[in-house]
Amino acid sequence: MAIELRMLQMDQTMTKGKIGKWLVEEGDTVTQGQPLLEIETDKVVHEQESPTDGVIAQLLAEEGANVPVNALLAIIGAPGEEVARVEADTTPEPVEVDTTPESQASVQPAQPRATPPATTVPPKASPAARQLAERLAIDLTEVKASGPGGRILESDVQRYIDLRGPAPIEETTRLKASPLARRLAKEHGVDLISIVGSGPDGRIVRDDVLQASAAAAEAPVMETPALQQETEVIPMGGIREIIAERMTMSLQTNASVTLHTEVDATAFVELRGMLNDKLQAREVSLTYTDLLVKVVANALGEHPRLNATLTDEGIHLLSEINIGVAVALDDGLVVPVIRNADKERLSEISEQVRGFAERARSNQLTPGELQGGTFTITNLGNFGVDAFTPIINPPESAILGVGRILKKPVVHEDEIVVRSMLTLSLTFDHRVIDGAPAAQFLQTVSSYIQDPYLLLV
Q1: CATH number of the domain that residue 93 is part of
Q2: Can you give the residue range of the structural domain that contains 88?
Q3: Is residue 156 part of a domain?
Q4: Active site residue 412
């Protein structure tokens, strides 16, 4: 009996996932637990595995597509089984999703389409929304926006497609090609229109593209001189596109304010050196970020308003102090979370941060390690940055930016001396936190840095 492969919900906030890359082709034999495709969420790239042994009968989602939770991705049949081909799943993106992977998306009834008002001003829309609308020849003025400031999101375009009914004839007669064939055609520069498919119902498959590519390579090519300077275009896809959407949403939604303060970190530097000398035999090496996680966790315990999130119901003061630590990657960044950081020992925090960094750079972080944060620390000190304006990581209400530690001549106890100085940058949501409480929190953080031995009490 044929088995359906559907988009899993990999964390409680996930509503859709992007098909990064298919690892199999129609007709391939697969085993239970074998990775079938890569799914990109707003937190991590995840491999979805086969739930059973069998043969890939049909792939229903193309690479690059944003697919709602529980939408149909593929059909897996038994060896030799005749499986009827099905149309691509049109389950609309859910407005609310249960916390279990098999939750069903809620379907909204189609509403009569209102005639868009005449205007010469193009509607505001995300890059992904414009790309999807352009590909399917959809007029964005007909799409109802749900994003901040009346911005049309990709999910709005998808919902419009789901609610409008059958697609026009020019869309239903689009070229039939497997996702792998489309990717190979793009990589080899092959025009799919020129290929006659050998798959079921004339579907273009992998071998068709490879044969066309080989034939094209044998043909003589006339070189045409470039008429203008060439530029490199970096596609806005994967993690980069997700970061762009989330950071834009943060700036458009939050009433962000940033406070800067310079702190005498001389004792902070001395404490780290002393602790590392003591811990050398245990092969533990504390970083400044490790110490700052403990500092911030203690300060949040004294200032719970900074450990909060805003919903339609109001301001929620969170009982757990879960510190996210930003980790830079080649193509973006991720923010793994140290849970109950206020209850962890420094050596345990150091071990977690080091493990997060290693797994992040090898793409081995799990979705559970990237969710549930209540406050974020981002440290650019290693890059020679003194002060900056960090952007709040939704749905959190504040983020602390950390600059480099720099020796400077300062006045200390009425004398000009050289001290190790550190600049902190706190961005907070003014809808949740007023300026004075935010400044008091920053003062508390500063006091722990100036007198870090309080951390040992």
Answers
A1: 2.40.50.100
A2: 1-110
A3: no
A4: no
Question: Residue 261: what pLDDT?
Answer: 98
Does residue 226 lie in a domain region?
A: no
Report if residue 203 sits inside a domain.
no
371/16 Cα distance (integer angstroms)? 15
What single DSSP character describes residue 392? P
Question: Is it the case that residue 256 has pLDDT exceeding 50?
Answer: yes
Top pLDDT among 163 and 145 is at: 145
Which residues are paired to 396 by β-bridges? none
Look at residues 80, 110, 140 and tell me which one is the last residue of a structural domain: 110
- Per-residue CA distances from 152 to 65, 82, 145, 217, 424 (Å): 17, 42, 4, 43, 36
Q: How many CA atoms lie within 13 A of 446 on its CB side?
A: 18
Q: Output the domain CATH number for residue 333.
A: 3.30.559.10
DSSP E strands in 44-173: the ranges are 45-49, 54-59, 66-68, 72-77
In angstroms, the CA 179 to CA 186 distance is 11
Segment (H or E) for 84: none
Q: 45: which 2 tokens? A: 């790239």
State the chain's mean pLDDT as an integer.
82
Nearest to 182 by CA among 206, 156, 166, 157: 206
Residue 377 falls inside a structural domain: yes
Q: Is residue 13 scored above 70 in pLDDT? A: no
Strand partners, 66: 18
The answer to whether the CB of 279 falls within 8 A of the CB of 346 is no
Residue type, 28: D
| pTM reported for the whole predicted model | 0.60
The Cα–Cα gap between 69 and 61 comes to 13
Catalytic residue among 46, 188, 316, 430: 430
DSSP label at 431?
T
* Measured CA distances, 421 to 140, 192, 396, 402, 407 (Å): 52, 61, 28, 12, 6
Phi/psi of residue 400, each to 5°? -110, 120
Band (356; pLDDT cuts 50, 70, 90): very high
| pLDDT given for residue 185 in this prediction | 83
Domain-ending residue, one of 93, 110, 127: 110
The model's confidence at residue 106, banded by pLDDT at 50, 70 and 90, is very low
- pLDDT higher than threshold 60 for residue 141: yes
**Number of domains, the chain:** 2
Q: Between β-strands 72-77 and 308-311, what pairing exists: parallel, antiparallel or unpaired? A: unpaired
- Residue positions counted in the chain: 457
